[in-house]
Design brief:
Layout: H1 2-33, H2 39-75, H3 82-105, H4 107-114, H5 120-133, H6 136-152, H7 157-181, H8 193-215, H9 239-264, H10 274-308, H11 312-339, H12 341-346, H13 352-366, H14 369-384, H15 389-412, H16 418-445, H17 450-477, H18 489-513, H19 518-529
Helix pairs in contact: 1-7, 1-10, 2-3, 2-5, 2-6, 2-9, 2-10, 3-6, 4-5, 5-8, 6-8, 7-8, 9-15, 10-11, 10-13, 10-14, 11-14, 11-17, 11-18, 11-19, 13-16, 14-16, 15-16, 17-18
Length: about 525
């Protein structure tokens, strides 16, 4: 258990540092290309997202279906898994190279598919960026392949900390761009081939470094890999059985994301669009990644053990306990971030007015943060019972609602509020998804005691409302949207931190007044994460 604890601390610390350096990377990028109403910024945001979208599909079919389920089993082979991993790496590299070449050749069509409403100049700039960015697919894949092999051999640190190097390289490259060309350069006609090469090349070179740095730790696996094109035994015949429903789920999600991207392309240059939405999502995911993933993952391990043993009563107790534990943190994170929405958005914008515009997008995303945390538990409970079919269907429903609401937003909202409308539609879809998912799990297991943990969530919300009110009053006291918290990205971060601390203090006070039993659990968890904590 001490080894697991050390690994958890290492991974958790890496996640936090990675998020912080990722924030700084986005700040420098916004200083170079702009954010809200920046056609150049949206062009880069769209192009740099393409390799992530394509890799998400490939990784589900290749990594989820083959690597993750089988690499540990292969390690128990008399040769230590050398033959299997050689076949796997050869197959994976071939698939990644072919996909990367085809995607890069198809760059103009991919850009047109994701951003049909861009102007001709903006489409040309996005396509130029895409040629630089799409090779990232290969190196994302190699990073994942090598990282999974390292994790299978209990070498956890490099896989978690390598993205930090990626962020540092990106920051350095973007700073060089600002030093040479100034910024923010937001108009497409102002971009030269040298500018495009520096920004696009920096983004891709950072991914290359992220992948290559893992190779320096390969000797610690004790494996000797060589090209092996005899792919029998890798598990190709089991792809459909192992990851079929998960693969379809990712395809549905990518289709929904495609529709959102197409809708947002119409707002570029006239309000928050592609890059502003990505930055709002980055802020939204900060509490989710730190709270839900770090606290929820150990609960999922315990829940999976109980499900595997057929102890349904313990699983039901695990569901309620994990939701209440996550809830006590995620509720205040939601309300505190809402109170600090404007200064937090200022981190990724170039003016106070842009921060106000971007804050609406963040607030719309935050509507879905609590439901998403609950869904984390519910969905993984299905996974614990080896059921990926049911999650596919309620995720398909969610994707359908995302698509419908995005199209409605496009039809009824002005371009200034289009991104917020798309984000709100996604939050509404998440809320409906978690309601349906919980109902289906209740039918399967029975006795989930939904009323009990819903009452706890309500108690947290009651405590968080005055806490958010206190944070908002602090924001107004600091001058509101025209005060010092929106004067610069650095002051925006400082202001958001102060508002957050005030909100948390008031929240803890109200939980104590309400005598919430979860408060003692929460303080115990916090102590464990502090230096010297147990």
């Amino acid at each position: 258990m001490s080894g697991i604890g050390r690994a958890s601390v290492l991974i958790g610390a890496g996640t936090v540092v990675s998020r912080l350096t990722g924030f700084l990377r986005s700040v420098v990028l916004v200083a170079a290309v702009g954010s809200v109403s920046s056609r150049a910024g949206d062009a880069f945001g769209t192009a740099n997202q393409l390799p992530n979208n394509i890799y998400a599909i490939i990784s589900t079919g290749l990594l989820t279906a083959v690597v993750v389920p089988q690499i540990v089993k292969a390690s128990a082979h008399p040769d230590g898994g050398r033959a299997f991993i050689s076949k796997l790496f050869t197959l994976g590299t071939v698939v990644l190279v072919v996909t990367t070449v085809l995607a890069t050749l198809a760059a103009p069509w991919l850009v047109q598919l994701y951003a049909p409403d861009y102007t001709a100049d903006q489409l040309a700039l996005t396509t130029a960026f895409a040629y630089w960015c799409l090779p990232q697919i290969l190196f994302y894949g190699l990073y994942a392949l090598v990282g999974e092999a390292l994790n299978a051999r209990r070498v956890y640190g490099p896989f978690t900390w390598a993205p930090i190097v990626n962020n540092v390289v990106s920051i350095a490259g973007f700073l060089v761009f600002i030093a040479l060309f100034g910024g923010p350069i937001t108009e497409t006609e102002d971009w030269t081939p040298e500018m495009i090469a520096l920004i696009g090349g920096t983004a891709t070179f950072a991914i290359v470094v992220q992948a290559v740095i893992l190779l320096f730790f390969w000797r610690r696996t004790g494996l000797h890999v060589r090209p092996d094109f005899r792919w029998r035994g890798v598990g190709l015949n089991h792809i459909g059985r192992l990851a079929g429903w998960t693969f379809l789920m990712v395809l549905a999600g990518q289709f929904a994301g495609l529709v959102q991207s197409r809708v947002l392309s119409g707002a570029s240059g006239d309000g928050p669009a592609a890059l502003a939405s990505q930055n709002a999502w980055l802020l939204f995911m900060l509490p989710y990644s730190i709270i839900v993933l770090s606290i929820g993952t150990p609960y999922f391990t315990q829940l999976s053990e109980h499900a595997s043993a057929g102890r349904d009563a313990d699983v039901r107790a695990d569901v309620g306990r994990s939701i209440r534990t996550l809830g006590v943190f995620i509720v205040i994170a939601t309300f505190a971030l809402a109170a600090a929405a404007v200064p937090a958005s200022r981190i990724f914008t170039n003016s106070a007015d842009q921060a106000v515009e971007a804050a609406w997008v963040l607030l719309a995303f935050l509507v879905g943060l609590i439901p998403l945390a609950v869904l984390f538990v519910i969905q993984r409970t299905f996974y614990a019972y080896d059921d990926t079919r049911t999650p596919f269907f309620f995720t398909l429903l969610q994707c359908g609602i995302v698509v419908a609401t995005a199209l409605v937003a496009e039809a009824v909202l002005s371009q200034a509020y289009l991104a917020a409308g798309v984000a709100l539609g996604q939050s509404i879809a998440s809320l409906i998804q978690v309601i349906i998912a919980t109902w289906l799990l209740e039918r399967r297991l029975g006795g989930l005691s939904i009323g009990s943990w819903m009452l706890s969530l309500l108690r947290f919300v009651i405590a968080a409302l005055p806490a958010a009110g206190a944070g908002w009053l602090v924001f107004l006291w600091f001058g509101g949207a025209s005060g010092w918290t929106t004067a610069s990205p650095l002051l925006g971060a400082a202001g958001a931190a102060v508002i957050g601390l005030v909100s948390v203090a008031v929240y803890v006070g109200f939980l104590a007044l309400l005598r919430a039993p979860e408060l003692s659990v929460a303080t115990g968890l916090v102590r464990r994460f502090l230096p010297g904590g147990r």
